[in-house]
């Protein structure tokens, strides 16, 4: 048993142990009985009753490894052993038993010590794992030296942690030592080998031995690319690497320049560029503990396998368990504290709807749903939001993912030039052979460009190695050993591939020959073709190419007449052409090794179909076409038309192969498969002419360029050579080119060896047509100099398209062209596009305007030429020279209608510059200079511009600009000189002096002046009050010095609004009359606020308003303020009593410097009210000169009595007039006095 157990796998051990031990793979241990550690002695019989396995350690078991305890530290002496041997057996047995019994306590003490020591060591390791201290070392140590005792220690630890309710610690430990370890082992086994082409027994290579870093860049255009992927590679090959932000594959989820965390990464790349190999390297490095160890779980889920689950409903946990059985029992819902990464590889191979818009929201990892619902919610972050997501896709399918679901966009560019050479040097151990192949590939530009794709490197290496070896073998056979070193470069034989068609034809021949040698033992130089197999595979390739499918399933094969058995046969026969794949745990899939091979086989099928059926594959089933026989030229013309109709160019490479295979030189390589046709040369001439005619149509640059590549496959370079001659002579500026020549020019410029740094239109032809024709070239250049070329708005749609595309363009110079408004608007549309990478746009007349534009673009984050409103409030102007700003504002390309220079430190010189702008022909309609201390001098400068007839400014805002009466006069004069445009003027917060408001207000009455609104008042409340009172009084209160609101003229006007008007600097009111108004305590509080403010108010009449003492006290709060300069206050008949008098007395003692007249007639002063106020008249500090208590008649009586007795009777309690002759008049006057409440006389004689 122990021997068998020693050979068990980990999973088997755990299965065996599950019946008697606590499982390390689940928390089922919660429900088991705890082990009994009581010290009660166990009988020997009990100890020995079990099998030997359960009570001892087998020498053949791995339980004896590691830190297993030593049970025999003391050895019995030889003498004692001899004594035992000579004793009677029964006696000896008795003594042995007695000795054993006597030493049992000591044995168990030693045993306990050893067990405790062992457990302490293991617990210490577990603790360090949980503390993340040297975690990788201890996890590795546990798993490499795994034994039953270590597993038991883990079982005990997990059990007691859960008993202690420390589930998080138990889960973490279990994850690290069980789930994560087993997942890493499984993924390492799966991903450590790489298969170039197709996996066959004995054909694998360790990934680390052949892996070459790929060039991955950050960010790329989010728009759908309408070019064939091969064309995209050709364009990318011309970009300087310095332009791109390179990203290491291992750092995909790290971006120090981004503030937000990266959750979802989308990596784009054309077919065969290395997306899946990058995934393989990323996963392998993690599984081997080299990189990204902060990620706890990685789950690679290829779409090609998930397609097989399209119709099923399953939970996310079920999906993971099906792909990774070793994770069974893991609870994903508690994994928020861990980083979990899902790698969704091959979005382009996905046959699910990927319906982000309509799929329901799903957040439960254990509830089943359709696979599409699971994946869309996983990507959006509704399902397992803490998980990281990495999606790989070919470019066309990448648009299936909404941009707002992507945190980082990367693109695999494949191999750069250095990496291409590195690949070949790794591929061939013979340095000379590697060098020869590299040199040959470099000779053909189209081949060298294609080597950006790793799979094409492999195809090229396979073909060129085979050709090179065959040549050398032939040389040796012919006894020409001296020439054995002859290289590919020196060989001019036609069978050395120089075009794509030649390369792929050789590749097919070589693969078929290899399979014949392997399976049939054939070693002849000729190829034995299996026409039926190639025809069937070709039909599959063509049908699926039309559907844009690269992964096929049993149903796809059956539709082409291929059963599963045949598919396996074809996969075996065409080992490196067509492959059969079995998923991790799911079904079988099929594909061609690379998309380009599928396209080549599809093109070959088209020729085979024509050979066999005398019909084109493009002929649809119909009675008329069924009977029509077609020849080669019909097929080729139809294919050209079909390819040109394609929106995304998916037939471009197919067309290249189809045309290339029509050449006799290539058909000779397929002898025995295709019928040789003597008319092929004539067909070639006809199709070349047909293609050239196509250039007469208005083709897109992408389609035109592909047609030139097609001509290259047909060995026709006449157009290209003609254009190269023109270029060498520099004769384009005056030449009238045909459409075909224009297309050739574009092709030559786009396929030049070096990236086009600078495109200068003047070197070609200064016209809109030339720009439109060469827009594809402009798109690839870094700088486009289009200045002084007489361009009009006709050029702008093409330029806008360039700016909105995935372009290299960083600088565009459009100076001195007549683009007009419509053209600039079109350009601005391109500039606003999210893909626009333009950094410098020049179409301004002066360098000063350019500098201002560049500076403001940096400050504002966008070009001011895109704005209708320019806000430079605060200090945004910075160091920008005012003259440069004015140059920008005066440029015809500026579309600014409103400029805000609020709170800027404007000087007199600044205002002079602004006056220059106003004096120029611009479309500026509003200027806001609020809160800038212009003073009168600055306003006078601005008025110089305002009075110019060319100035069409409609709104001018000058609030809080420290403008006084002189400034107002200047504004009035300017608007009289040029009255036709300004409709609104804001002067709030300034000081107009005595006449400023009137001078400007008079303009409103001038029939010639367009001014509709002059805003003087700072607050809306004051504006409302002014508007209301204007309606009541028939004129603006701003033009009045006295405001009489006696009676009910206040109406619904709020007291606070009235106070706002009185406190405004534009109010020139010196006297306000609120006689007989229903003023409340609150109204008095508002008036106190007015008195507490800096105003020019000198007189306030509140007569006949029932203020009471409370109201007077509120008013006194204003009177006592030093800022109050009121001179006359009238409070007659206001129901004021002694308390009110006291408050007035106190206020005037606090602020005695201004009030000179106080009217209190008709009030009730009480015993002391009159005296308190009268005393103020004697105070030298008090300015009060007139204090009116009495009405006219009583006042005459008071004066009469004062003249008789020499004292003011209002201050007397007793009056003796017995010695004086009063007369009738005197008696009447005294009678009036006695009746007044202010008279407090008790006795009169």
From TrEMBL:
Which residue stretches does the UniProt record annotate as biased composition, category Polar residues?
9-23
Ranges annotated as biased composition (Low complexity): 46-59
Query: Gene Ontology cellular component?
Result: cytoplasm
**What Pfam families has UniProt attached to this entry?**
FISNA, LRR_6, NACHT, NLRC4_HD2, WHD_NOD2
Please give the residue ranges the record annotates as the region Disordered. 1-82
Q: Which UniProt keywords apply?
A: ATP-binding, Cytoplasm, Leucine-rich repeat, Nucleotide-binding, Repeat
Q: Where in the cell is it found?
A: Cytoplasm
Molecular function terms from GO: ATP binding
Q: Which SMART domains does its entry note?
A: FISNA, LRR_RI
Domain NACHT residues, every copy:
263-397
Amino acid composition bias (Basic and acidic residues), ranges on this chain: 24-42
Principal localization reads cytoplasm
Tell whether Kinase is among the UniProt keywords. no
Q: Give the PANTHER family listed for this entry.
A: NACHT, LRR AND CARD DOMAINS-CONTAINING
- What name appears for this protein in its UniProt entry? NACHT domain-containing protein
* UniProt organism field: Cyprinus carpio carpio
